[in-house]
Amino acid sequence: MIHLYNVTKIYPNGVQALRDISVKISKGEFVFLVGPSGAGKSTFIRLIFREELPTRGQILIGGRSIIRLKRSEIPILRRNIGVVFQDFRLLEDRTVFENVAFALEVLEYPRTEIRKRVMVALDMVGLGLKAKMFPHQLSGGEQQRVAIARAIVKNPRILVADEPTGNLDPMTSREIMDLLAEINKKGTTVIVATHDREIVDAFQKRVIALSQGRLVRDDVKGAYAL
Ligand code: ADP
Ligand code: ADP
Fold first, then answer.
1. Which residues, judged by CB distance below 6 Å to any ligand atom, belong to the binding site of ligand 2?
2. Is ipTM over 0.90?
3. CATH number for the domain running over 27-54+81-219
4. What positions does the domain ABC transporter occupy (predicted)?
C-alpha cells in the first residue's frame, strides 16, 4: 500500500531529515514511527500526504507514484489519507459538527450525505452528543477525537498521526490510541509517529525506529526501545 524506495529528504537549509529510507507498509497495518526529536518522524509523515516532496527516491501509494502527481490529482490522494496532528488544528469559531463537515464540504459532497457521514464519524469517536459544542468547550482528549472524526469522515484508506497524544495526559492518551487501533481494525492502515514509550510497549505493533534520518530498526511486534 505504501512503498518508500531510497527516500532522502534534504530541506532547503541543508538539513538531511531522511537518509535513504526504504520501507513497505501493507494494507491494514498499524505502524508506530519512533525516535528522538529531530529523527525525521514528522518529515516521514509529511512526505506520505505530500506536504513535502523527497529530494531523492520514490514513494508509491496504492502502486502509484505520488511524486509526479499533477496539481489536480493531489486532492484525490488527500481524500485517501486522513491526517491527525499533536495540536488538533480545529477551527475555533466552528462547532464540532462544522469542523468535521468542513472536510466534506471542500470535496463538494451533498448536504444530506455530509450530515449522515459526520454523525457516523462523531458516533465512532464517542462525540455524537457534543456536535453543537465549540472546541474550547471540550477537553484536550475530546478535541483530538474531533480531529480524528475529521480525518476519518472521508473514509480514507490511510490514517497518519503525528504525535497525536503529545498534548494529552497518560489516561487520555491511551483512550485516543485505543480509538486509532479500533479504526485500524476496520481496515484502515494507520501510521502513528510518537514519543510515547508506554503506549508503544503496551500495543505490541510494528515499530519503525528512526535516528538522525536513518531507519535503524523495523520490528513486527516491537517495543519503543531495544
Ligand atoms: P521529528 O518529527 O522526528 O522530530 P522532523 O522530521 O521534524 O523530526 O525533523 C527532522 C530534521 O529536519 C530536524 O533536524 C528538523 O529540524 C529538520 N526540519 C524539519 N522540518 C524542517 C523544515 N521545514 N525546514 C528545515 N528543516 C526542517
Ligand atoms: P513536531 O516536533 O511537532 O513534529 P516540528 O518541530 O517537526 O513539529 O515542525 C513544526 C513546524 O516547523 C513544521 O511546519 C516544520 O516544517 C517546521 N520546522 C521544523 N524544524 C525546522 C527547521 N529547522 N527550519 C525550519 N522549519 C522547521
1. 13, 15, 42, 86, 162-163
2. no
3. 3.40.50.300
4. 2-225
